[in-house]
Design brief:
The chain is an alpha/beta fold. The protein folds into 2 domains: about 170 residues, Rossmann fold; about 160 residues, 2-Layer Sandwich (Alpha-Beta Plaits). Helix content is about 50%, strand content about 20%. The protein contains 12 helices and 12 strands. The protein has a 5-stranded parallel β-sheet, with helices on both faces. The chain is elongated.
């Protein structure tokens, strides 16, 4: 698993998505939060004293129930579980920790007696990361604790970098909304769901009016300011479950699941008004300009109709809105024969 995370990070760094720098945070295992679940107060106190060398914050739970509650309520870098627990079998507790969604990635170190070889082996099968034999050697405890904490922090960094690279791969760098690649893929899935549920789907394609003139008059930096503001106004004025994507250039697409033609037209008209009602501030120039958009709306699907056909109808409607004078909304419904097939 670690090799797979490393490979993904390496691929992302080649595309300039992540820095690809070494595991700086993973080199440091100090100042960690450690949970010790052990009902032997002497053993627990010795562990706390040993880990104080690294200024670790140690929480001691004297029962399995107390330990489970602490793990669920607080973030820990490592959990140390003793096989000598009286209230529950230690391996059952380890299994329970692994089954919990939020804490399943926390490494577990098992403290076992010398004659518990079979229990240690079963613990490793259940997901325990490492074990120690009692009586615990202080240096060995420090070494194994540091190893597990470093591994956890390194894995967290790799996962964070991968999630960041995935987000960047699916979003438009300038505006922060989804990009065309994500739109096309996600739209086809929404269409399949629409066919199976029988619920309508609406789509609007919008374009900034006279965008070339904005670039020519005020510069490309001002054009970027306009695109960012358009994206913000779109996302602030449509519901969260609606997909907003930059289709290319100054074109944006809004996908509206479970939306009939009448509602889609109403949403588009409201959005057109929100864009036009207040001037756009251009931070690059320190001034404001008036901006309008034209919108094409399509709605209604035939069974199995591909996403590009829905996009094409919205594009045709957008072209008509431009031809009719801009700053307006035009709708194009599905052809009659397509509706008959769907029905």
């Amino acid at each position: 698993m670690m090799d797979e995370w490393r490979l993904r990070e390496s691929t992302s760094s080649q595309f300039g998505v992540t820095s690809g720098s070494g595991p700086s945070s993973a080199d440091n295992a100090r100042d960690a939060n450690v949970l010790v679940i052990d009902n032997n107060p002497t053993d627990a106190a010795n562990i706390r004293e040993t880990l104080a060398v690294d200024a670790d914050h140690v929480v001691i739970a004297t029962s399995a129930a107390q330990g489970q509650m602490a793990a669920e309520r607080r973030e820990f870098d490592l959990v140390i579980v003793s096989t000598g627990l009286a209230d529950i079998d230690a391996l059952r507790l380890c299994s329970s920790l692994r089954a919990h969604e939020r804490i399943r990635q926390i490494p577990i170190l098992l403290l076992a007696e010398e004659d518990e070889t079979q229990k240690m082996a079963k613990g490793l099968d259940l997901g325990v990361n490492d074990y120690l034999i009692k009586p615990v050697d202080r240096n060995e405890l420090l070494a194994r604790v540091r190893t597990q904490i470093k591994r956890r922090r390194y894995q967290d960094r790799l996962r964070t970098n991968f999630e960041m690279s995935l987000a960047l791969a699916l979003t438009d760098a300038l505006t922060g909304v989804y990009n065309r690649r994500y739109l096309v893929s996600h739209l086809q899935g929404l269409i399949s769901r629409s066919v199976s549920t029988g619920k309508p789907i609406g789509l609007m394609m919008l374009d900034v009016d006279r965008f070339k003139s904005i670039n020519d008059t005020h510069g490309h930096q001002a054009g970027d300011d306009v695109l960012r503001e358009v994206a913000q106004r779109i996302t602030h004025n449509v519901r969260n479950f609606r997909l907003v994507a930059r289709y290319g250039g100054e074109e944006f697409v809004v996908v509206m699941p479970d939306t009939n033609a009448e509602l889609a037209l109403m949403v588009a008209e409201r959005l057109r008004g929100k864009i036009a009602e207040a001037p756009f501030r251009l931070p690059s120039l320190g001034r404001e300009i008036a901006v309008t958009i034209s919108i094409g709306v399509s709605n209604g699907l035939a069974a199995g109709e591909p996403a590009d056909r829905l996009l094409k109808r919205a594009d045709d409607a957008l072209y008509a809105a431009k031809e009719e004078g801009r700053n307006r909304v035009v709708a194009r419904a599905a052809p009659a024969e397509a509706i008959d097939q769907a029905g």
